[in-house]
Amino acid sequence: MIQTGLLIVLSGPSGAGKGTVCTALRPTMPDLNVSISATTRAPRSGEAEGVNYFFKSREQFQEMVERDELLEWAQVYGNFYGTPRKYVEDFLAAGKDVLLEIDIQGALQVKRQFPNGVFIFLIPPSLEELRSRIIGRGTETEESFRLRFGAAAGELKYMDQYDYVVVNDRVDDACRRIRSIIEAERCSVPRNIDFYRHPFQNELKSETRN
Amino acid sequence: MIQTGLLIVLSGPSGAGKGTVCTALRPTMPDLNVSISATTRAPRSGEAEGVNYFFKSREQFQEMVERDELLEWAQVYGNFYGTPRKYVEDFLAAGKDVLLEIDIQGALQVKRQFPNGVFIFLIPPSLEELRSRIIGRGTETEESFRLRFGAAAGELKYMDQYDYVVVNDRVDDACRRIRSIIEAERCSVPRNIDFYRHPFQNELKSETRN
After folding, report:
1. Is position B111 within any domain?
2. Which CATH number goes with the domain that contains B165?
3. Which PROSITE patterns does the record match to this protein (chains A, B) (predicted)?
4. Which of A37, A57, B13, B36 is deepest in the core (most CB within 10 A)?
C-alpha cells in the first residue's frame, strides 16, 4: 500500500524501557529492520557485538564521526552512541521500514534530517516505576542515579516534538500500541495520496468515459 | 490514557463497503459507540429499525432538520440521511469514542464541526471490485448504477481531506487497520500532551527537589 519505507524512531526518557520494548517487538514484526547502534560504552551482561550494539573504542567512534558515517550521535553519561547511516538509508530507499531505538538527543537530530519519520516517545507509567526500574537495573552508583533521574524529568519536556506517546505499563501492551502506530502510519493519507490518486483516478476516468 | 472521546468518521466512495466493514468491526470493539443514522430510504432486506437506521418519513426527517437535531445530513440518490446530534455529543462529552459511518458529503460537514475527529477514507481495492460490488448488490437499475459509478470517481478527489485511507481488500484486514488507527490516535501527542505534561512534570519536579 505504501511506497516508501517508514522510519520509526522509538525514543524517550532514560529508564522508560526502550531496549526491553524493542527486544520484545522484534520477533512480532519480522519485516521490521532494527538499526544497531555503535557505542563506546562497555557491554552489559548478555549483550553481544553486532546484536545489541557495535562496540567501538573512542578512536574508532571518532573516525566514524569524521567520515560522516553516523546519522546521529550523542554523548550520554560519558559514553558515545551513534546510528550508522548506511543501514538506515539503504533500507528506506528500498521501501523497507526501519526502526531506530535511540535517546532523545539522537531522535531530535534524526528529526531534522527525516521530518516525515514516525517519532514515538516511550514513557514509564509513573515516577515510582521509573525510579524502581533505574534502581532495579543494579548497575548504578548513587551519583549516576541522580544524573539519570534528573535527566528523565528534564527529558519529558521534549514530548511535544514527537508524534506519539506510548506508556510502557506492560511491555506487551506497549508493543501492541507501537504495532498499531506503524500500521496506522502506513494508512496515512499524506503518505499514500500520490499512489492512490493517480493510477486509480486515471482508471476511473477512462472507465466512466466509456 | 486519553481524556476526551475520539470521534471516528468512517467514510468513502459509494460501494467501498462501509456498512460491511462497520458491521464486522462492532463485535471486535465493544467499547466503540456506533452512531445510528436517520434515513428516509426504505429498509433493505435484513435491516431493522434502531439497529441499522432510524427509518423516517420525509416529514419526520424535515422536522429533525428544523429542530437542529442532526449533526449532518445529506441527500444521496434521492434519499435523505442524517446523524442524530445528541448521541454523538453525549458520548464524546463523557470521554467515550464514537464511530460515524457516513457518506463523504456528511463527513465533510462533520469535519467543519469536529476538526479533531479521525477521518478514515475507505476505498475498494480496485475499480473492478467496485463495479462488481455495486452490481452484486442487485438492488440497482442501470440508471442508478451509472449514477453511483460516476459519483465514486468524483468522490475519490476528497481523499486529501481525510487523515487515513484504508483499502477494503479483505474485510478482516480493513477492520484490523481501523482498530490500529484508533489505537494509534489514542497515543497521539497532541491528544495527550496536557494530560502527561502537567501531573507528571509536577510529580517529577517535586521528586527531584527532594
Report:
1. yes
2. 3.40.50.300
3. GUANYLATE_KINASE_1 (PS00856), GUANYLATE_KINASE_2 (PS50052)
4. B13
Place of cell 486519553: B2
| Other Cβ atoms within 10 Å of A170 Cβ, number | 10
Which residues in chain A are contacts of B201 at CB distance < 8 A? 153, 156-157
Instruction: Choose from B183, B195, B203 for mutation: most chain A CBs within 10 A.
Output: B183
Per-residue pLDDT for A183 more than 70? yes
Residues of chain B positioned with their CB less than 8 A from the CB of A15: none
Compute the distance between CA of residue B163 and CA of residue A101 in angstroms, rounded to an integer: 27
pLDDT digit string, tens, across residues B133-178:
666 666 666 777 677 667 666 778 899 999 999 999 999 999 999 9
User: pLDDT (tens digit, 9 = 90+) per residue, A135-170?
Assistant: 666 666 777 767 766 766 677 889 999 999 999 999
Taking alpha carbons only, the member of A70, A172, A180 closest to residue A118 is A180
What's the number of domains chain B is made of?
Answer: 1
Query: What's the pLDDT tens digit per position in B83-118?
Result: 999 999 999 999 899 999 998 989 999 999 999 999
